[in-house]
Design a protein that fits this description.
By secondary structure, this protein is α+β, with helices and mostly antiparallel strands. The chain is 45% helix and 11% strand. The protein is built from 17 helices and twelve strands. The longest helix has 32 residues. The radius of gyration is 22 Å and the shape is globular. The termini are far apart.
Length: 431
């Protein structure tokens, strides 16, 4: 049997594969390549239960301890909250929780709005943009780097290494990126230790949890996790949400007519096209039965929020985007003790980015057929490589902007499809 979680069709649109798997069984054994198997969870009820089941461990170091031939512990993320269980997990999470509370994020909103407005102002006169490279990537990268105190000159490299961590089927590229991130963060920690600057990273260096301090490897891993997770998910969230609205003009019009709806609409947008397709690795510490399937001890388990969020047993008509739907119980950010710590920040960034687009970009539409869009080739993340759009620029106050000659919808020349699909910037140019 071939791996159902890879291939061009899956990366382009995983939902038919998810639906087929779920209709067969909400939990089942699937091949994942190189003679290995995992148990995949595609049902909503089963996924929600699995997220809180203490018999499913995330301690990857323990799992690979007796499997030296399969060991693949990347130094950048080897001791993060994503790879630990209680009580160690709770200790690490407590040290950074305060930085991502709703109150802290609310205080960041003016800065997020400033960055978002500046990015949109940059491409606004053109009447066209790549919403991934020009907005969805640089906004969360800028914000999390600002929080951690990452110098602007280093941000292009950070973005590239982060992107490489999710290069499906390219273990050498993933390993190189992991080592590069670990080395970069080790050097940055030393810099902040010598010259504290009030950043989140400076706070982590000085962090104390009772008598328990972060050791150096924990500090580096935690900082890298915050750096990577702080923008990867949000980039995909913004891109996927924008595409969903562009493909559902009635929903786009609904948001334009009622901007206050955007806050609650985010849940439906997250449910409809989750930025995380399959959650990170878990394994069973003892036998268990889930969704009618017996799972033995010591085997990998993959929870698929992307599949669970389209389970018709929980969300009627799941293939439909319905902004009036109550979808706050989606699993796009996970559930339980490992629920995404940065969810409030991701929501704020997506809300502000989408609101800025809707306010400043009139007649917003895709610049290429949807079938020509390219998706990232990773089973974990669900995100676009680029999202070319055209629009009519709108000045603050609702007045149309003067067009730049030869640009956007005012132009008599429609840019070739290949040009529209080409990102305006390489990943290495993002700052």
């Amino acid at each position: 049997m071939s791996n159902p979680l890879q291939g061009p069709e899956f990366h382009l649109n995983p939902y038919p594969a998810y639906a087929q798997l779920r209709s067969s069984a909400p939990v089942q054994k699937v091949p994942t390549g190189h003679g290995r198997y995992s148990y995949l969870i595609t049902g909503y009820a089963e996924a929600r239960a699995a997220f809180t089941d203490s018999r499913l461990s995330k301690n990857t170091a323990r799992f690979f301890a007796d499997k030296p031939s399969e060991r693949n512990l990347h130094p950048a993320v080897s001791q993060t909250m994503l790879a630990t269980d209680p009580p160690h997990h709770a200790r690490l999470r407590r040290l950074v929780t305060q930085a991502f509370t709703r109150g802290t994020v609310d205080r960041l909103r003016p800065y997020i709005q400033q960055v978002s407005t500046g990015l949109v102002d940059t491409f606004l006169p053109d009447g066209r943009a790549d919403l991934v490279e020009d907005l969805a990537v640089p906004l969360p990268v800028t914000v999390i780097c600002h929080m951690l105190g990452v110098p602007e000159a280093d941000r292009p490299a950070v973005r590239q290494w982060s992107n490489d961590l999710f290069a499906a089927g390219q273990p050498a590229r993933i390993d190189a990126a992991s080592h590069a991130l670990a080395e970069f963060m080790t050097d940055l920690v030393e810099t902040k230790r010598r010259s504290p600057d009030g950043s989140l990273l400076t706070d982590l260096i000085a962090a104390r949890d009772g008598r328990d301090a972060l050791d150096e490897s924990e500090l580096v891993s935690l900082a890298v996790l915050l750096l990577v997770a702080g923008h990867e998910t949000t980039t995909n969230f913004i891109g996927n949400a924008a595409l969903a609205l562009l493909q559902h003009p009635e929903s786009l019009a609904q948001l334009r007519e009622d901007p206050e709806l955007l806050g609650t609409a985010l849940d439906e947008l997250l449910r409809f096209d989750s930025p995380v397709g399959i959650a990170t690795f878990r394994y069973t510490t003892e036998p268990l039965t889930l969704g009618g399937t017996d799972i033995p001890s010591g085997v990998p388990v993959l929870i698929a929020p992307g599949a669970a969020n389209r389970d018709p047993a929980h969300f009627p008509d799941p293939e439909e985007l319905d902004l009036d739907r109550t979808a706050k119980d989606h699993l796009a950010f996970g559930h339980g003790i490992h629920r995404c710590l940065g969810a409030p920040l991701a929501r704020a960034e997506a809300e502000i980015a989408l609101d800025t687009l809707l306010t400043r970009c009139g007649r917003l539409r895709l610049a290429v057929p949807a079938e020509d869009l390219q998706w990232r080739r990773t089973r974990l993340m669900r995100g676009l490589e680029s999202l070319p759009v055209v629009f009519q620029p709108v000045q603050p106050g609702g007045r149309p902007c003067p067009y730049t000659p030869g640009a956007g919808l005012n132009s008599s020349r429609t840019p070739p499809r290949a040009e529209l699909l080409q990102p305006r910037h390489n990943h290495s140019d993002v700052s």
